Amino acid sequence: MKTRVLLLSVFLFSIFSAEAQIWKNMGKKIEKKIEEKASRRVERQIDKAIDKGLDKIEEAPKEAGRSSKKSKGKSGTQTGNDAYEENTMSEFDMDQESGGSNAGLQRYSKFTFVPGEEIIAFDDFSQDAVGDLPASWVSTGTSEVVNFDHVEGNWVWFNKTKGNFVPEYLRDFPENFTLEFDLMYDFEFGKYSHARLFSLVFSDISNPEAKLDWDGGPTYFYLQKLAPNYLSIYFTGNSSDGGPYITGKKAVSANKDLNFSTDYLAKEFINASGANSPIHISISRTGRRMQVFANEEKVLDMTNAFEKEVKLTSARFFVNNHTEQDNYYISNIRYAVGKPDTRNKLLSSGTFTTSAITFTSGSAQIKPESYGILKEIADALKSETGKSVMIIGHTDSDGSDALNQQLSEKRADAVRQALEQEFGVSNAMTTEGKGESAPVADNSTPSGKAQNRRVEFILN
After folding, report:
1. Which residue has the higher pLDDT, 112 or 427?
2. Model confidence, pTM
3. Disordered: where is this region (predicted)?
4. 21, 71, 222, 246: which could join 217 in a potential S-S bond, CB 3.0 to 4.6 Å?
5. Calpha distance 125→307 (Å, rounded)
6. How does the average pLDDT of the chain come out, rounded?
7. Total domains present in the chain
8. Last residue of some domain: 296, 321, 337?
9. Final residue of a domain: which of 290, 318, 337?
10. pLDDT computed for residue 90 by the predictor
11. With bands split at pLDDT 50, 70 and 90, how would you rate the model's confidence at 229?
């Protein structure tokens, strides 16, 4: 810096040589002034760079959500959780070098939820056009598929609307099942809204697509107009009544004394700073009991959520948003059945395959909601420390064969690292990747892709 300043000073002196004596006296002042001005210019450039970065972080996700920019896979349509472009290889190389594959797992240390093993339906809306209503839904309200710059995948956006939304694949529930989805919201928390309501409704209605004009109001008067047995999980964004809340509400029309409502104060999940950040919702039914998790936190545990031998025929979303500033978004709906029995299956048969270990799109970074299934696998392995285990990664067919092969290898190794570093597994472990070479389901559907994205364990 000083060398450049000095050269510039000399240049100025040569221009004004006729006034050399004057400049001789002022030389030091000019040199100092030039140095100060140059420093200020450098500082301005740094400020601009910082502002540009902050502007990107603070972009309004709502506007970004309306963007039609889409990632392209082999089929020319938007890809699912395994979507990635060729330059993302460096991203998951960096994940591995930095230990990023295990980042965040410990914040789910209280997470006891384990997904059902057999995937009945998986919907990430990758096969729906941006701007359209999901093709597999029946509805009376308004919604559309959108995507964002700041989070992966397609999302269903509920803005100012009131109505029922019935996914055709959420029906005929068995006694034991799990249901998961990602939920986001965007409200003006400082302003009152008559209604900011998103609810998931399970019922034994005889025709799942009937009563699409049902008003899912908050009182039992409304609840019992849908079906003889009903359970709703409400997510409310209002704070005027002391909320926001996550609420479980049961209605039994035959005996009103059996009705109940239980609230979880959800300020840690639904607040101004958490807007446009996904919350992973995990729901499990085992007999009469239903548990609900928001991220790692168990928010509802209803041991008598259903009467004995109630057959749930369907689930629907009921949304009531009052203003243009009230927004809910959902994605990655996963419906699976089967009571998990990881330990016995792994130890008795010597093999276990799961699609419940999930990864950030196009990388080997394990999502923290995989904690529950990883812990069960770790506990099984720690009871048989003398046995070695082979860990095999599999992907769906999105992307090139070569990249999928490398991705499956890195994901298998990420699981090995997590078992060793996060759970203290000391068994000898080797890893292998098979890419997309061994599918177990049709790669042309989101559900099939979800089944093919799996991790296999083989004991020796």
Report:
1. 427
2. 0.76
3. 53-83, 423-451
4. 222
5. 34
6. 81
7. 3
8. 337
9. 337
10. 35
11. confident
In this structure, are 306 and 191 located in the same domain? yes
On whether both 164 and 277 belong to a single domain, the answer is: yes
404 has pLDDT over 70 = yes
Is pLDDT at 21 greater than 70 in this prediction? no
* Domain region containing 108: 60-112+341-460
- φ, ψ of residue 444 in degrees (nearest 5): -90, -5
pLDDT tens readout for residues 68-118: 333 323 233 333 334 333 333 333 333 443 344 455 777 787 788 989 888
Within this chain, do residues 394 and 442 fall inside the same structural domain, yes or no? yes
Interval 344-397: pLDDT, tens: 778 788 889 999 999 988 899 999 889 999 999 999 999 999 999 999 999 999
CATH of the domain at 438: 3.30.1330.60
278 and 391 fall within a common domain: no
What confidence score (pLDDT) does residue 89 get? Answer: 37
- Judge if 441 and 325 occupy the same domain: no
Kindly state whether residues 211 and 65 are assigned to the same domain: no
29 and 72, same domain (yes or no): no
